[in-house]
Amino acid sequence: MITKPQAELRIVVDLNRCQSYGQCVFAAPTVFQFHGEESLEYDYAPGEDVRTEVERAAAACPVQAITLGTPAGTEAGR
Questions:
Q1: Which fold has domain 10-69?
Q2: Helices then strands (H, E): number in the chain?
Q3: Shortest CA distance to 55 belongs to which of 21, 31, 39?
Q4: Considering only CA atoms, which of 6, 15, 3, 46 is closest in space to residue 28?
Q5: pTM across the whole model
Q6: In angstroms, how far is the first alpha carbon of the chain from the final one?
Q7: Which of 4, 8, 14, 24 has the smallest count of CB within 10 Å of its CB?
Q8: Greater model confidence, 76 or 58
Q9: What is the tens place of the pLDDT at every residue in 30-47?
């Protein structure tokens, strides 16, 4: 069975939409964290080893502010 390699993961967060609920921080704490009270910081290009956590974080966002994509700009997972 030949498996197709997954495209490199890219994260985009719409910070205008983000309401700082922090569900992404709980789901993927090595990728998302708060700086101060409400300023979200994140790794926009995390490694494949955290893909599952990042997908869970995107799914858990109550306002759907997290988009997953590839370097070419095509959406993956959302």
A1: Alpha-Beta Plaits (3.30.70)
A2: 2, 4
A3: 31
A4: 46
A5: 0.78
A6: 27
A7: 4
A8: 58
A9: 999 999 877 899 999 999
Two structure tokens written together for 45: 């290009």
Nearest to 13 by CA among 36, 47, 33, 52: 33
Place of tokens 């080893």: 49
Query: How long a stretch of residues is the chain?
Result: 78
Which of 61, 63, 50 lies closest to 22 in space, CA to CA? 61
Q: Token digits for 51?
A: 């893909």
Are 68 and 75 spatial neighbours (Cβ–Cβ below 8 Å)?
Answer: yes
Closest CA to 8 of 42, 51, 38: 51
Q: Which tokens in the block code for residue 44?
A: 């926009």
